[in-house]
Design brief:
About 30% of the residues lie in helices and about 20% in strands. The protein has about 100 residues and is of the alpha+beta class.
Amino acid sequence: FDALKHQYPDIVGYQLEDSQVKLAAGWLIDRAGLKGESVGKASIHLKQALVIVNKGGCTGKDVCDLARLVIDRICREFGVKLEVEPRIIGATGQKELADA
């Protein structure tokens, strides 16, 4: 976090009890310029970086592919691997993003 804070003084992070820092994914997504990014009919909201919108006819695959794109871009640009927090439920039950 200290190295990122040095490079990006306005980065948002929250101190955890175990001396780790939880980074604000919305800040990372916004800073990476991903608002409005689309895959198929799924898109990152233009005003709220943590919201994926359905532009009409969006599939679960579109949402998962967009999530993977965001995770990959954040990892490349900041060296941070985002974790998927929402649960992904498919026709056969809960899935991991890699399997969705």
